[in-house]
């Protein structure tokens, strides 16, 4: 392997395409004769359609046709294994399960014509009063059967005994609101049929999932469905699963006999692709006087829809992170008339927030520094399984983060730190998220007769840097210069890959690339040592190194031959394809420190400083990894201080389905963010020592902000978002 | 958006004539109008483009500032004369919208922007303002952003303009042209309380065109401040806002003109709060009394009660800036 | 609506609507007038007003004639009629900034204006910044500083940044933050965007 390709801060290779407008996202695909589809959504949250009148819409200028449950073909509900989580396909019958459920699709020549005709569709409903308020349903909470994350009632030891042995017990109830992903690119499906073959340009985090779901829904062979996604305008989980609009668009394109482009309106995205479920969390933590945890009880209650039981807040940090003999973690569900929930960037952020905030409360009760409290409960092993982590440098993260932040200068007394304009608060927390552990990916490596490599995998780049780091990994393993390697993705004609989700791309796709590239390299080495004309003739293959486009005898860099000459003599390209192989579940952690400023006059909170030091194993690209960490921190600012989707309690409808009602952070909300990495390889990683990392850096920062607010004002605000009205109420 | 005809007007008089057609509407920046039309909240058969009318002037004279209705928010906010003579105006404008929208939105259109009430903005939900008699969804719904002052049992939507709040404190005058000829309307009389007719928001007659604004700039001794409280740092509508023009001499308030945003269906004036200040030293007790006077009669709903203490705190914070309290 | 059905009467308060019980009906996507008994907008009436008009937009220095209805926004004209898909639609309501373009050198949101209103103006989109293979300094700085991740907001960020530098709002990082706040970045590259704007401004001065 050549040094220096992996680990550098390399500018993303798709940067030029993105800054010039040349990058083509799904809605930018050039498809001849494409018509425009617009959804009509239910305005009631529970009930059924009793009458439909599409005549005015059908007669409107430019309309190709209007489709409803009366005219749609019957579609099979794809299995959950395809990532289609909803347990029904809309527009198959008259039933309405949530507000904003598609009830009709209008297809017209132009977007404007389709939009206007959609308004002309008349739907009459028989409706029932919806139930959408979690607090009203807590009495009906139940523990769902084990799901994809295993049991929903995890027990380790005996928490009763652990609490009895505690010197200090802290009880707290935290609530987090319903939130939406809001990628800047709304979801898009462009579906074009050619005979019985379907090509879909889709804004998705998982082209294979989309392919499989379409295959099942439409009853066509897999090889007849091609999904193309060279660029995705952000996903954050919104585009991880497959959602109804994709299936419906493909179905109506077939009926209409014309390619159809459907771009969800921003408003429609709020009910079309899941959300982070609201949570109500109770925590009881017991500790000995020296700070060692004796018991944790953590009950998370969250809504599920009427037709599924998907629970995405699994309290992994409670089960896995800290050394604690007695733990009970329970997920409870309440059925409400809401759309199916899903995962949103860092699904564990909600439970991590409650745990890390309650630990801060414990540190106050113990009068123990919160960093010290965490150090005393550091665990070398996954507490849930007892298995050692591949590597774990969390203690180093605490130490380095605290030093870089200047934590030692903190006066622990709440309200004690001030400046001219108000109160200063310093808070910290642990960042931790699982990474990977998913089915993985295959990759195809082609080494041309010119000695350059093309690597392909059916993965996606959401902006995380997949194009860039996979090119780096390929170059590193092959021993080629970066510019001699190209990585291509986003096409189901390439070897399949798991969705870009669950921090699984680096371990999953990265290991697929490593496997294929290692084999390809071995083939080139074998050619070189078997060729009597080669300077490497007869050398033991294990003694061959590759770097900068050359093969050489290890320790004798001058005894070398170029990839190009080996391949030229071979006279044909070398092609190797690796199959998907699961990568072990990783655990990437870090320590985050936050300074907030609170204006006590009007309760305004500003995050002034964030320092995060993380252990993601080996860092493949310092620049893209740093950007991911910054992004996570900013998501945490939104999560903690402003983001919440509001649903009218009577109508059951989202009243904030836009970016003026649903606030996400703007540039002026964000301070400089300092990111550090331990950067030591995880020996258990199949991806050159790197672990998945994308979801770690949002966790911790949420609680660190809340803990900093407490440090500033001396009051604990346990109901997110921490808006200034709550600060004022706390100060009054 | 329903299809419509498009006609550029080449003079104010021609525009007014074109506007006699029912369901015709002027378009200037279009930054609010097009959203309302996309959402089906408003439907118009014809848009009369008034951007070519000669109404863009910004004139700063000895005792007043004259703004053409089509001057853009950014042009007014950045105008050196405005910043010197009426910094409050500049501050309020820069507190609104985004740089791009400020480049587009006209001063006249800003005054006519419509409430952000989400029940109003969704054309399929009951709303008395949009569809009289259909009911107010906010009264018992999600009303965190709604009015605590000046609302009615038909409507508690708040007016979203920062500019209008500043102009109210500055006692500006709106000039208009209609088929009946030109007229002047004090901003303080321009907006209507919702009462039983929340669909009627201003005193403008159908087809009446705003031509400009006259803003007095006489009192050179007075200082002004604009404070906007919101849930993120910028690019958001006000939760509450305060515009204040205050003259303090020898520690005593000689003049106080206050206006409030985010708390009422119209830019809110409180003569009682002003009276509580005038003639008194700017001490904490005076400020507290003004705050109490301001919120007397306020009606909190389920989610917006916090605005009552918040607006008092915001007022106190603004007054703090004039010195004397601490 | 079918003949025997009475149009839904929406009560005088919302409560009556909501408490009316199991037969409450509301139309999907239909403005309340239709529910209150008015006929839905007549397609025929709409057709007369739709009449597309010939417009000539000057985009990146090139006159681009196209035929659009008056209701077509500048954004949709650029993307759907002229094939200039670099400019993005993130919200279509002026709330995200992805559609930012320059008109006569000033940054605007192209979703909030009509194409017919922009005739005779000089429109610049992200496709018009680079000179051949040479990136505009702002584009180069965004790549260098990693001021982008998914790239979807990037054209709007870059157009805003180009305008902002011209406006002179680069005297401090805080000023850049404030004046770049009309452009949302959900991947959340804000600190890198600030660095890119700062560095590009230095280079251009």
From TrEMBL, chain A:
Keyword Oxidoreductase: yes
Aldehyde oxidase/xanthine dehydrogenase a/b hammerhead domain sequence ranges: 20-129
InterPro entries per UniProt: Ald_Oxase/Xan_DH_a/b, Ald_Oxase/Xan_DH_a/b_sf, Ald_Oxase/xanthine_DH-like, AldOxase/xan_DH_MoCoBD1, AldOxase/xan_DH_MoCoBD2, AldOxase/xan_DH_Mopterin-bd_sf
Keywords: Molybdenum, Oxidoreductase
GO molecular-function terms, A-Z: iron ion binding; oxidoreductase activity
Organism per entry: Actinoplanes auranticolor
Protein name: Carbon-monoxide dehydrogenase large subunit
Keyword Oxidoreductase: yes
TrEMBL record, chain B:
UniProt keyword Oxidoreductase, yes or no: yes
InterPro entries: CO_DH_flav_C, CO_DH_flav_C_dom_sf, Diverse_Substr_Oxidored, FAD-bd_PCMH, FAD-bd_PCMH-like_sf, FAD-bd_PCMH_sub1, FAD-bd_PCMH_sub2, Mopterin_DH_FAD-bd
Single GO MF annotation: oxidoreductase activity
Keywords (A to Z) from UniProt: Oxidoreductase
SUPFAM superfamilies referenced in this protein's UniProt entry, alphabetically: CO dehydrogenase flavoprotein C-terminal domain-like, FAD-binding/transporter-associated domain-like
Pfam families hit by this protein: CO_deh_flav_C, FAD_binding_5
Ranges for domain FAD-binding PCMH-type: 1-220
PANTHER family the record matches: OXIDOREDUCTASE, XANTHINE DEHYDROGENASE SUBUNIT C-RELATED
Name used for this protein in its record: Oxidoreductase
UniProtKB/TrEMBL annotation, chain C:
InterPro entries noted in UniProt: 2Fe-2S-bd, 2Fe-2S-bd_dom_sf, 2Fe-2S_ferredoxin-like_sf, 2Fe-2S_ferredoxin-type, 2Fe2S_fd_BS, Aldehyde_Oxdr_Iron-Sulfur, Beta-grasp_dom_sf, TAT_signal
Keywords carried by this UniProt record: 2Fe-2S, Iron, Iron-sulfur, Metal-binding, Oxidoreductase
Domain 2Fe-2S ferredoxin-type residue range list: 53-129
Pfam families in the cross-refs: Fer2, Fer2_2
Pathway in which this enzyme or protein is active: Alkaloid degradation; nicotine degradation
One GO molecular-function entry: metal ion binding
Residues annotated as signal peptide: none
Domain of life, per lineage: Bacteria
Iron as UniProt keyword: yes
Protein name: 2Fe-2S ferredoxin-type domain-containing protein
Organism this protein belongs to: Actinoplanes auranticolor
């Amino acid at each position: 392997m050549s040094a220096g390709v992996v680990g550098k801060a390399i500018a993303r290779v798709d940067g030029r395409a993105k800054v010039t407008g040349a990058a083509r996202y799904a809605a930018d695909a050039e498809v001849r004769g494409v018509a425009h589809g617009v959804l009509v959504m239910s305005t009631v949250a529970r009930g059924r359609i009793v009458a439909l009148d599409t005549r005015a819409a059908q007669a409107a200028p430019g309309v190709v046709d209007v489709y409803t449950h009366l005219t749609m073909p019957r579609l099979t509900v794809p299995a959950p294994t395809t990532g289609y989580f909803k347990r029904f396909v809309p527009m198959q019958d008259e039933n309405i399960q949530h507000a904003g459920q598609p009830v009709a699709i209008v297809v017209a020549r132009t977007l404007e014509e389709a939009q206007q005709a959609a308004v002309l569709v008349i739907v009459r409903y028989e409706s029932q009063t919806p139930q959408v308020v979690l607090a009203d349903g807590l009495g009906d909470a139940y523990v769902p059967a084990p799901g994809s994350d295993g049991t929903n009632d995890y027990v380790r030891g005996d928490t009763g005994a652990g609490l009895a042995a505690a010197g200090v017990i802290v009880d707290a109830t935290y609530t987090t609101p319903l939130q939406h992903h809001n990628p800047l690119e709304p979801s898009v499906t462009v579906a074009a049929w050619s005979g019985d073959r379907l090509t879909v340009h889709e804004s998705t985090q998982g082209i294979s999932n989309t392919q499989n779901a379409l295959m099942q829904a439409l009853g066509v062979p897999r090889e007849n469905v091609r999904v193309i996604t060279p660029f995705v305008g952000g996903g954050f989980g919104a585009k991880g699963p497959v959602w109804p609009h994709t299936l419906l668009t493909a179905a109506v394109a077939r009926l209409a006999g014309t390619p159809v482009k459907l771009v969800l309106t921003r408003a429609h995205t709020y009910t079309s692709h899941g959300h982070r479920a609201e949570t109500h969390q109770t925590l009881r933590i017991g500790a000995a006087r020296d700070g060692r945890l004796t018991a944790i009880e953590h009950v998370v209650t969250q809504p599920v829809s009427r037709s599924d039981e998907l629970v995405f807040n699994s309290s992994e940090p409670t089960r896995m992170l800290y050394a604690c003999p007695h733990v009970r973690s329970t997920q409870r569900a309440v059925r409400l008339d809401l759309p199916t929930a899903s995962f949103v960037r860092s699904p564990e952020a909600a439970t991590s927030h409650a745990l890390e905030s309650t630990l801060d409360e414990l540190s106050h009760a113990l009068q123990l520094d919160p960093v010290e409290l965490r150090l005393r409960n550091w665990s070398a092993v996954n507490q849930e399984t007892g298995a050692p982590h591949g590597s774990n440098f969390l203690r180093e993260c605490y130490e380095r983060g605290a030093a870089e932040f200047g934590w030692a200068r903190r006066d622990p007394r709440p309200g004690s730190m001030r400046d001219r304009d108000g109160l200063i608060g310093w808070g910290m927390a642990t960042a931790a998220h699982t990474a990977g552990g998913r089915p993985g990916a295959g990759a195809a490596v082609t080494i041309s007769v010119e000695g350059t490599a093309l690597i392909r995998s059916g993965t996606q780049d959401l902006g995380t840097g997949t194009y860039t780091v996979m090119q780096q990994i390929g170059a590193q393993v092959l021993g080629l210069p970066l510019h001699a390697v190209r990585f291509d993705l986003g096409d189901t004609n390439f070897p399949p890959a798991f969705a870009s989700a669950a921090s699984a791309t680096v371990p999953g796709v990265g290991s697929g690339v490593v496997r294929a590239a290692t084999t390809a390299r071995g083939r080139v080495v074998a050619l070189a040592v078997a060729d009597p004309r080669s300077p490497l003739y007869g050398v033991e293959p294990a003694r061959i190194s590759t770097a900068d486009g050359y093969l050489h005898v290890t320790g004798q860099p001058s005894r070398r031959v170029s990839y190009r000459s080996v391949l030229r003599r071979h006279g044909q390209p070398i092609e190797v394809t690796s199959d998907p192989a699961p990568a072990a579940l990783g655990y990437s952690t870090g320590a985050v420190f936050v300074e907030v400023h609170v204006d006590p006059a009007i309760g305004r909170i500003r995050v002034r400083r964030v320092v995060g030091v993380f252990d993601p194993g080996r860092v493949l690209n310092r620049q893209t990894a740093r950007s991911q960490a910054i992004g996570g921190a900013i998501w945490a600012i939104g999560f903690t201080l402003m983001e919440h989707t509001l649903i009218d309690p009577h109508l059951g409808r989202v009243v904030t389905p836009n970016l003026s009602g649903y606030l996400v952070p703007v540039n002026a909300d964000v301070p400089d963010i300092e990111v550090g990495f331990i950067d030591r390889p995880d020996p258990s990683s199949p991806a050159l020592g790197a672990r998945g990392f994308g979801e770690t850096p949002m966790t911790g920062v949420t609680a660190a902000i809340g803990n900093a607010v407490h440090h500033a004002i001396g009051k604990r605000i346990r109901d997110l978002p921490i808006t200034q009205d709550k600060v004022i109420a706390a100060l009054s | 958006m329903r299809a419509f005809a498009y006609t550029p007007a080449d003079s104010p008089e021609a525009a007014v004539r074109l506007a006699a057609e029912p369901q015709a509407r002027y378009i200037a920046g279009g930054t609010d109008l097009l959203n309302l039309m996309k959402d089906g909240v408003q439907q118009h058969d014809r848009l009369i483009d008034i951007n070519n009318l000669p109404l863009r002037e910004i004139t700063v004279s000895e005792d007043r500032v004259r703004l053409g209705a089509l001057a853009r928010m950014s042009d007014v906010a950045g105008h050196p004369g405005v910043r010197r003579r009426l910094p409050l105006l500049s501050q309020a404008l820069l507190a609104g919208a985004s740089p791009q929208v400020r480049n587009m939105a006209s001063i006249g259109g800003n005054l006519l922007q419509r409430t952000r009430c989400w029940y109003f903005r969704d054309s399929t939900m009951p709303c008395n303002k949009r569809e009289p008699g259909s009911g107010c969804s906010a009264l018992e719904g999600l009303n965190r952003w709604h009015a605590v002052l000046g609302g009615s049992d038909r409507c508690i939507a708040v007016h979203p303009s920062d500019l209008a709040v500043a102009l109210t404190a500055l006692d500006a005058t709106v000039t208009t042209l209609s088929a009946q000829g030109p007229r002047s309307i004090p901003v303080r009389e321009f907006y209507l309380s919702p009462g039983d007719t929340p669909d009627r928001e201003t005193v403008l007659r159908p087809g009446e065109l705003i031509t400009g604004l006259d803003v007095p700039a006489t009192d050179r001794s007075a200082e002004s401040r604009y404070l906007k409280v919101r849930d993120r740092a910028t690019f958001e509508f006000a939760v509450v806002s305060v515009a204040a023009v205050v003259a303090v001499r020898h520690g005593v308030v000689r003049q106080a003109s206050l206006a409030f945003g985010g708390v009422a269906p119209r830019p809110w004036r409180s003569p009682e709060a002003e009276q509580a200040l005038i003639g008194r030293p700017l001490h904490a007790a005076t400020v507290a009394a003004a705050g109490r006077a301001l919120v007397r009669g306020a009606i909190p709903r389920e989610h917006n009660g916090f605005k009552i203490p918040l607006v008092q705190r915001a007022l106190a914070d603004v007054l703090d800036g004039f010195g004397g309290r601490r | 609506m079918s003949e025997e059905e009475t149009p839904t009467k929406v009560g005088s308060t919302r409560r009556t609507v909501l408490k009316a019980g199991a037969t409450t009906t509301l139309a999907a996507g239909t403005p309340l007038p239709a529910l209150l008994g008015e006929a839905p907008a007549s397609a025929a009436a709409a057709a007369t007003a739709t009449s597309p008009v010939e417009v000539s937009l000057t985009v990146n220095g090139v006159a681009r004639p196209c035929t659009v209805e008056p209701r077509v926004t500048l954004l949709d004209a650029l993307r759907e009629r002229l094939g200039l898909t670099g400019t993005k639609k993130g919200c279509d309501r002026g709330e995200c900034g992805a559609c930012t373009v320059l008109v006569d050198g000033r940054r605007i949101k192209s979703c909030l204006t009509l194409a017919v209103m922009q005739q005779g103006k000089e429109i610049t989109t992200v496709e018009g910044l680079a000179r051949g293979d040479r990136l505009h300094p702002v584009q180069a700085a965004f790549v260098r500083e990693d001021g982008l991740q998914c790239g979807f907001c990037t054209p709007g960020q870059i157009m805003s940044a180009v305008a902002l530098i011209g406006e002179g709002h680069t005297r401090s990082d805080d000023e850049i933050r404030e004046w770049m706040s009309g452009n949302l970045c959900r991947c959340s590259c804000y600190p890198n965007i600030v660095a890119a704007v700062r560095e590009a401004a230095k280079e251009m001065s």
